[in-house]
Design goal:
Chain lengths: 340, 340
């Protein structure tokens, strides 16, 4: 686990995932591994963002609802401990919707349209002017999520930094209206791990592209994924020198293989010539199979007892409901609306 | 009370007011009078729209919070009976905020920007691109209010018809996703009474323009308002013929004087010449003083017992909370989110 910032003092951490698909190795490297470490020191809440998942999936809601428990099982399988981390479901926390309504009056449409993350996603999804209102305004909803827990530290990728800027703008407006610091400004916690590429080495990881390895991937799926992995397209004969830059197999070995010295040796050999992609892929496959086998097994076990998963989510949501209602009370107080 | 549509069968009626100022004679003619009649036959809910009031007053929240109980006192003073009409406070109904979130994913930004009512208001308020997100999206919040009670009939001015169109578009999308009629489409109930002009005869009624007569206006305020009322600017001498078109005194006499034959006589006399504005204003003033005296007295009495007003609002909000939670449950069911 790598974190840039010192985190000696316990922080209030809010993190989460859109429940639009099972989690994959990209999530593992980018954040899950980090969360498992963070839960030991900090007050960490993980939000399963089903409502946010619907902002661009309202016409295909099964994509969200069918993945809620999968995501919870993914968390547990990688070592998130519900006794140390509160896992909750966004749609079970009405205070977040209410905060979103209040904050919406403090953010202009043009401010939202300037948000680089949203701009980018709107372009990627081809929304243009047919962008759903809920999608354009989701930075406000995210601000409600973060401030609803009064989070001080939010683990994000650097592409998500504009979201925290938007959140802190809202925090400052609320605090200025209140005349005192009701809400905490939050700081980003950037991961030191470089972003994991997709198995095709080109596109963004996406379930529909088939270029990810899910945490629950079967043995066969792992084999197939490693087999089809992008390497050095100019490395045609085993004896030729190969390129490790952009070679996904080596990026994954760097990320997952425990024996860093052995990976260094392999890299040198590959660059010198005489090491075939079949061999490097075999090493990676064995590494991933070993790593994912226990995760897959634990995941399947958790998923075989849905009542337990629901119970974990329900208990976490109850705790979170109390926290978020308190913040909502403070915000409504600013607007003079706690009259009964 | 005039209603265009037949209303023999009990309907579910949702109506309300933004809590941004005390109610005035324009509200009385346009809707309060109608509501007093409707409560005898129908299931009527009146929503005190504090959250909607904040969509363009977030930086001056007192304008909203200080008027909530005033508006409730106005209702009771004109004859709204809390045993027959449920009076509730929007900010006490989290289900409305949650419904707004779900519906936001079904409405595009460009659809909102095309809404004629919003377009008009954006222009009037001089928002242009600095329009708050909550203001642009308030038709979605209104759809949540209406469908949250599964209203079938919504009393509106004709300028509000685009709001009901937007609501019914959302209803059809929700019902289509559900594959069955979960939500009712609503019909407008237009008042037969023509819109009451402001006392200056030119601008929209507004507290800041000082061109309204509040239901709680003092005797002196009524005297001053009638004195300054717009008449016929070319009616310079008593003996000259006067014009009753656009003459606010006559419009108000039409709206409020009980003796229609007497008003007809006055009109003929005025048009013929020989009737001064001082005289017609005296008639109107007497009529308004008689009409508003008991309303003002009842209003003051209600406002002297704030605990009672809060109790009425709290009880109505509790009933409404149960109703709106049921609808929210049905909508969440469509999205597969009632997992615990």
């Amino acid at each position: 686990m790598n974190t840039k910032q010192p985190t000696d003092k316990p922080e209030i951490i809010l993190t989460g995932d859109r429940a639009t698909g099972p989690l994959h190795l990209g999530h593992y490297v980018g954040s899950l591994e980090q969360r498992v470490a963070l839960q030991e020191i900090h007050e960490q809440t993980i939000l399963v963002a089903d409502m946010q998942g619907l902002t661009d999936n309202a016409h295909n809601p099964k994509k969200v609802s069918s993945n809620i428990l999968n995501v919870v099982a993914d968390y547990l399988a990688v070592g998130i401990n519900p006794l140390k981390t509160t896992i909750c479901l966004q749609s079970q926390l009405p205070a977040l919707a209410e905060l979103t309504m209040y904050y919406s009056n403090l953010v202009t449409i043009s401010r939202l349209e300037r948000n680089p993350t949203v701009k980018n996603e709107v372009q990627n999804k081809g929304f243009e002017r047919s962008i759903p209102a809920g999608f354009l305004t989701y930075p406000i909803s995210q601000a409600a999520d973060i401030t609803g827990f009064n989070a001080t530290l939010v683990p994000v990728g650097d592409d998500q930094l504009p979201m925290l800027e938007q959140t802190n703008e809202i925090v400052r407006k609320i605090n200025s209206l209140a005349g005192r610091a009701v809400l905490n400004e939050c700081r980003p916690l950037l991961s030191n791990s470089p972003r994991l590429p997709s198995t095709d080495g080109k596109n963004k990881m996406s379930k529909s592209m088939g270029n990810t390895i899910n945490l629950g991937a079967s043995e066969k799926e792992i084999t197939a994924a490693v087999k089809s992995m992008y390497t050095d397209p100019n490395h045609l004969r085993v004896k030729d020198p190969g390129n490790i830059e952009g070679n996904v197999v080596f990026t994954y070995l760097d990320a997952f293989h425990q024996d860093k010295a052995y990976v260094s040796q392999l890299k040198e050999h590959y660059q010198r010539g005489g090491l075939g992609d079949g061999t490097t892929k075999k090493v990676l496959e064995e590494c991933l199979q070993d790593m994912l086998r226990p995760i897959r097994e634990r995941r399947a076990e958790y998923l075989s007892d849905k009542a337990q998963l629901i119970d974990i989510l329900a208990k976490g949501s109850q705790i979170s409901r109390e926290k978020t209602e308190k913040i909502l009370f403070d915000v409504k107080e600013i607007f003079g609306l706690n009259i009964f």
